[in-house]
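Question thread 4412

I'm putting together a teaching handout and wanted feedback from people who do this every day. The idea is simple: show students a protein as raw sequence, then show them the structure tokens that encode its fold, then repeat with a second protein so they can compare. Below is the first pair exactly as I plan to print it.
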Amino acid sequence: ALIVAFFVEDLHRGSAAVGVFRSFQVLGTLLAGVLLGIYGKGWRSETLLKVSLAIATVIEFLIWNGPSITQWFGYYLILEVALGLPGIAAFVAFSTILQRATPAEYRGRVFSLIGASSGLALLVSVFVGGSLGEAVGPRALLNCTVALEALTAVAAVLLFRKDPRPERASGDGSEVADRGRDTDHEQDHDEHAGQPGDLQAVGQPAT
């Protein structure tokens, strides 16, 4: 609802422009899925989440404050396509982190709770937008969503300052290597310890 009001009041566009804008939103999501499938393997989920949230915040800020820069409709279409990549990347990274951190027996309930919370947040946003849209204006409310997304990006940076997985992997590997070296040392010690006894046994005269 706020996007429609934004196009009508701030860009002075009609319903056709809103439909085209939504179409480019879907196009950006599809392109983002392809690019993420090709180039997303080399990224850690925590890093991908932080970078995606930061980029999405900047792009949305440029979109909703675009009337202060230009009225050219192509500007908004280009940014909407570009927004698809960090949007999908942040969703995939968050889902991966949540799935990895949740035990298997609680995973279904946790994801159900996340889905219910998202639906409740959408309901609240629609109510607030309908109640305050005329008094405050769509741009001000849309900038509030940008501020919330910026706070989310800051929280992700603070929460995932350091990824513990490489340390665990390094510790496990070194522990296995140490055990292997200890085993080899014991085998070599047994072989060297057994050789003098064998030679002495061979050299003893028969009685």
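The second pair follows. I'd like the answer to focus on this one:
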Amino acid sequence: ANTLTDTEAAETVVPEKLPLTSGLAKYLILGLILGIFLWAVVWAMIYILVPTLKTTDDITRCFQYYLMADLSCYQNSNKRFGAGLDKFLGKLRYRDALPLEEEQRLLATNLKVTCRKEEVSSVYLTSSYVMSDAEQQRIDALIQSLAKENITAVYGRSIERDAESYEKMTEVGSVVYIERLGKSRFDSLEKISAMTEKQGVKILGVVVM
């Protein structure tokens, strides 16, 4: 009595069974997207919470120092955490950056003019972090350029860690900090700033590497 007629059987729709692999792929893709999102959140939090200089605005906003030059766009720092983001942002900010040699000449001129304005003939260069060989070569070139203008420049290790450097800086009487984004720490900068100001040493400005 319940037997379907040929017409009813033809009209009966049999639901199509989806392959199991289709549902599995959907969950794999969803899991991948969620994993990438969580990784990005963790990565961003670490980048933000690490107490180091992130941008040159930290120099002018937090310490109110004169930014003499920003050479960070020439920095090869692919091994540093957050270097990929910094490199991307650097391309946006420095699309019209001058060649490094020209920037170094401008820095030397800027420092020369500042020294004359402050009526100093010698300046002490120091940093709160350990410089690379390439950075040290740039500082050596800067010292040679200033020597041609009768300005004596001396580079020394961090006054936070080296007593001899601290004593030498007080003898010179004026200082320029050489710092690096992503490496120079806020607490170190605050400490050397307090040490410098306590001795009455003139802080002429900051060069960001």
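Top answer:
Good format. For the second protein you could add a caption like this: The radius of gyration is 29 Å. The mean pLDDT is 82.
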